[in-house]
Amino acid sequence: MDNDAPSSAFTNTVPTGNSNQPPDAPVDGAGTTTDGDVMTDSRGSEQNTGSDHDIDASVRPQRQEPVVSRRLGLSEVFGYSEDSDTNLLGLIYHVGGSVHYPHHSGRTVTLPQDRLGFVRREIAKMPPRPILDFLLQFFLTEVNWMTQLIHPPSFMLYYDSWWAKQSPKLLDEDIHVTHIDFTVLILRTCAFAAQFLPSPTYTVDSIRGMPLSQVREVCNTIGTSLHGVAETVNERGSLFRVQHLCFYAFNQACEGRLGSSWALLSSSIRVAHGLGYHRLAGSDSLLGDPLEREMKRRVFCNLYVWDGLLSRQLDRVSSFGDSFNMGNLPRMHLTPEVESESDAPEAFTERILQARLMAMWSCIKKSQGEDGTLYDPTQAQELHDWLQKDFVETLPPAFSLTNPDCKWDERLRHLPKQRQLIRATVGESICHLFRPLLRLGITDVRAMPIYKQVLLQSQATALTLAAFSILDASNKLHSLMGAMHTRLPAVVIYPFEAAVTLALLCIKDLVPREADVGVPGVQQNLKIRTNSVSTVTASSTEVLAATVQERLLQGQPVCYETCVAAVEETLNCLQKLSEISVLADGATESLSRLLSTIKNMSKNGVVDSINIASTDIAPSSKASLEQSQHVFASDSDMSLLTWVSASPGLHTISTADTTVDTLASEWPPFALSPLNDMWDPAVQDGLLSDWNRK
């Protein structure tokens, strides 16, 4: 069997451990089975490998085959995790005299004879190998950077082994469930890669005469059929199953079915939990031990990030809650382009940063109380300051939001894209934090003390700037990907939600007009071109971003007209993308209606707006927190507003209508540890336990 990687592009990182074994090979050593702690010697007689020197043989239960059958029944019928040392199943076998009991992973479970024919017929329908080879190579070089779910060298070793098993002389051999899981992983990965074709490097809409749409349909259809067989035979699954469920969820998101994507994501999380990834004790060792544990950490970290982002976006209940252990974050250096001793970021650094951000957001969400609670500006400001201090200000130099270190961009060519993803996610987090202020009515605002009204205006400005930051980041991400038609959800969702935020700010009249603040019109700076998406994205959107930046440097606010222009430009870009993206098509329709509402309101006058800037008791729209300190000093209710000054921790605000608890000590910083060092669990422990007192 040929286990060499097909090209040098996939061999610059050598997998550790036993990764050169085929997917269904045992890894426990010669003569050892994974179905029990009994092995045979050279004469065929059984040898007991359990540690029985400390248990009297007269009281130790006999290990007989019927016990194994009951063991399977307990795991399958009661749902006990086979990797637990503390649940009832683990206690039965530890107390019963054996610390090693079987893990019936897909590697050791073979398909029943009545399923073999169906499986082989489905595999025969797969696209020819040259098509699959091309799609996998494209995926590993152009798509894998988004998630790092696949380790290219080891994946290609298994891919070669998989094709070797398709030879006619091996077709009569038993097929293990893991072999089916890996087959589905190939199909799901290829279907996902096809979502990003054509591309700047491949401009044809077919591969060897097979249309890309047909490639996606065939791969997904066969993958669904084979997954159904594998799941029926073995519910527990494998690392390959978790991975292919993730890729199917990505496919659904690209097709504009985020609800289905959420369901698939939840399924993959359940499989990962069943395999013990939250304890890193999964026993289906398909890769060498160190590399396998690292890939499990990376998969589980990705699941945590996607669950956090989607649950926030869709307002769903997180599948993780507070159960993610930051000590389980990835820690190996697997980036061959740079030395592990250098200060270059690892390819997975962006995912770790996203996980840190989701951990902070979990605490923020818990602190905000139940849905329907009236928006509290002081609490939101504290949470924003905490996010700024303990996340934004601790970002590694290569991911800095203000002045990033770009010296590694040439060697790590996907680093600029990852940098924009971080920018967009941080901006989205700020938007989620401040966006509830849009629901406040005039009565709600007027009932607030003066300092809260000042905070509201400041936060409306911060919300506006965060939305512009998202638009700029998503625009640059799109440009870095070739500024072509793409189904990448981030290129659609981020700008759509940011544009909606700007539109709602205009509808609520929370941004000043140019005439009110005496700044030149933005329209004269815009030269809109409509001949291509790339031209629109590279010209007018960048001009808008430059205009916003210039006005901020001059101490001028972002105005109503600039926000409307940004909404219009986003609509133009989404209309281009809607030719192939279902998400963009739906976004275009909604954004068009909002834009029509804004234009109608401009003709008929603003109604039902907060209009904080024009209230008699609030400062002008130019007021900042620093400029407002004199207002607080003259108000008897403001004497304890220490949040205005910089401070290392959260503060106590005590007024007639609000009390916010203070943390007893400074929070531990979220400093990014080297990937080859143990992640400090005190960070997560302090984060969750301290916040529970809030």
Looking at this protein, list some descriptive labels.
694 residues; mainly alpha; disordered N terminus; two-stranded antiparallel sheet; single chain; disordered C terminus; 23 helices; two-stranded antiparallel ribbon
Report the β-strand fraction as a percent range.
under 5%
Instruction: Pick out the low-confidence regions.
Output: 1-72, 99-105, 281-288, 524-539, 613-694
Largest sheet, in brief, is: 2 strands, antiparallel
Distance between the termini: 60 Å
Strands of the widest sheet, in order across it, are 1-2
Shape by Cα distribution: globular
Helix content estimate:
40-55%
Write a compact overview of the structure shown:
This protein has 694 residues and is mostly helical.
Q: Can you offer a commentary on this structure?
A:
This protein has 694 residues and is mainly α. The chain has 23 helices and 6 strands. Among the domains are: 218 residues, no CATH class; 58 residues, no CATH class; 205 residues, no CATH class. Helix content is 50%, strand content 2%. Strands 1-2 form a two-stranded antiparallel sheet. The protein has a two-stranded antiparallel ribbon with strand order 3-4. It has a two-stranded antiparallel sheet with strand order 5-6. Strand 5 and strand 6 form a beta hairpin. The N terminus and C terminus are likely disordered. Its main location: nucleus. Keywords: Nucleus. This is Trascription factor. It comes from Cordyceps javanica.
